[in-house]
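Researcher: We're teaching a course module on how sequence relates to structure. For the next exercise, students receive a sequence and then see the predicted structure as tokens, so they can try to spot secondary structure elements on their own. Here is the exercise chain.
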Amino acid sequence: MMSSSIRIYTVVFALLLTSMVQSVWAENALTKLDGQGKPLPIYATTWACVKDNATGLIWEEKTNDQGLRDKEWTYTWYDSDANNNGGQMGYQDRHEVAKDSEQGSSCGKTLSQCNTQAYVQTVNQQGGICGFSDWKLPTKAQLETLLSSAHDSKSEQPQRINTRYFAQLPSNTWYWSSSTSAQDHQYAWLFYFDYGKADDHLKFQNFAVRLVRSSQ
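Model: And here is the predicted structure for the students to work with:
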């Protein structure tokens, strides 16, 4: 007959094994990519993109160099495509509604006007990222796929996004989506990774951007 100590050991071992399997699965769900779009090992310390192996989406990893793709730059929502903007294109720069805000200042003067469309176009025109030049602003649904569990390891930041792969985070993790609000077209959806929730905001607000593309 199995002793109580053996039963306890068996239960503890099973729990540890389950935790290890879940951790390995979580790591295998994402892949770091180099500047040419080639896979890197988990322990790589520098990478340019992250591939989600479950969805097939490839995500931009931000930089921390004050360049075009710096993690701290923010943008107004702007889309000249009438099929997507709900009849409200948005704003080409915060300066349009806040005259005391210098034009181009929210993205470090890397663009003449700091808006989502200008950022997407400039990234693609300047050679893209990871060897690809078809980057887009993600939809609300696509951003939601980045949501990680609330009980990540203690080595990670509290954000509800896997910081082992998305290491370059802004001080405020609100990210614009390409999705205009169906209730009011002056608003667009964004996602907040500090708490893992979506919300809509007026398009003249400034928030961060993380680009996406399909690997298909």
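Model: If you want an answer key for the exercise: Residues 63-211 form one domain. DSSP finds four helices and seven strands in the chain.
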